[in-house]
Amino acid sequence: MSKIKVLIVDDEQDFVKLFVKRFVMRNLDVEGVTSGQQALEYLRENAVDVVVLDVKMPGMDGLETLQEIKKRHPVVEVIMLTGHGSVKSGIQGISLGAYDYVLKPFKIEDLLERILKAYERSRLNRGR
Amino acid sequence: MQTTRICCGRKSNCLHKLLIVERYVAPVVTLLVALAALQVGGRNGLFIAVSCAVILVLLGFRLWWDLTGSQKEIQVLNAQLIQSQKLSALGELSAGVAHEINNPLAVITQEVELMEMLLPRARFEQQEDRNDFVECLTEIDRQVERCCRITRGMLDFARKREAVIQETDMNQLIDDMVRLVELEIRNKDIFIERRYAEPAPCVNTDPPLLRQVILNLLNNASQAMGGDGRIIITTCRTEDGGAELRFKDTGPGIAKEHLDKIFNPFFTTKEPGKGTGLGLSICMRIVNELGGTLAVESERGKGAEFIVCLPSLTQSED
Description:
The structure holds 2 protein chains of 2 kinds. Chain A has a single domain, classed as 3-Layer(aba) Sandwich (Rossmann fold), CATH 3.40.50.2300. Chain A is built from 5 helices and 5 strands. In chain A, strands 2-1-3-4-5 form a 5-stranded parallel β-sheet, sandwiched between helices. The longest helix of chain A has 19 residues. Chain A is globular and about 35 Å long. Chain A starts with a strand and ends with a helix. The mean pLDDT of chain A is 89. Chain B is of the alpha+beta class. Chain B folds into 3 domains: 68 residues; 72 residues; 152 residues, Histidine kinase-like ATPase, C-terminal domain (Heat Shock Protein 90, 2-Layer Sandwich). In chain B, strands 3-5-6-8-7 form a 5-stranded mixed β-sheet. In chain B, strand 7 and strand 8 form a beta hairpin. In chain B, helix 4 packs parallel to helix 5. The longest helix of chain B has 77 residues. Chain B is elongated, with a radius of gyration of 29 Å. Chain B starts with a strand and ends with a strand. The N terminus of chain B is likely disordered. Chains A and B meet through helix 4, strand 5 and helix 5 of A and helix 4 and helix 5 of B.
């Protein structure tokens, strides 16, 4: 089985670094970027299974990025990360096609499980 | 295209055979036995004939009972079918309207932007006029944004969602959404009580679609109650391997005359501009697409309870 390809998008550089390190240790193929614009550029050139996307970012925010990702790459699954947690953005995110909504801070095992579920879904979708 | 269907096991097949025996074989056999017993005559014969007659009456009663039961079921299914057909027809209509309205809205937005750009060069007789003008533009902007919100809602309502079936832990899925809502209501005096079935009901369904339904229902419940109250969430497994999820609140409840309207698109009791009235109809559409039912029980002043029944689905493509 090939490795699951994950892209983490968060404006906090340190968080992204740590995230990549921890998930590479779990045998995932992880890449990190720090803005929505960079995420879209990365997706244009590289195949990705699951994007983990922070809701609150300066510039292009999480919801806008989600909308663009879903428009351009419908089979890529997106898991939203949020620190403050707002029901309104939750409803928006999920109705825009986010796979899951995860509150920060999260347990690594928990998020890994969700990434696996999202990956399963994107594989089911690709198999069509 | 892909559809989802409810998995019927061997059990119902077996039941069906038993029903045929009961309806067609048993009455004939009993009648024949009764006639034979009458022919034989004597006390024993009479006794057997009478017991056969009793059995016939019982069988007849059961048949009548089943028939009235199925008639009720047909009525319920018919109502559900009409509801879901109505929603899908309205979906097509609203998608058409939304697309048509989005084009002029885009033009208005661009024109307003152009006016804002030209504004510094414009000359006004009085400063007051300029202020008025700026205010008008801002108001147009705001109203266009409001229209966009409505058309977005309409498109979301109309969107064809292709269910992707995954095994899902109901308790966990609900609890994720509950924690999100709890963060939002931490300043209010609302308590969410979890009455989850153990072990957790696991159902094959589409997780993100179901999340949308549950988040909407929880959001409605917390908004209905305002400052204080209690939301009770119950999950349980159903006999056919699906799950029943109940969301009860202690809010003001729903007026009787509104009960059969609340799933209609654009029905809202909120102030104009506050809600699009599409939340519950979107929920209804999603639950229908997942092969389940969404119902409400409420009395004015006694809160409301929303009941989601979901079957366990199998993915099939055709």
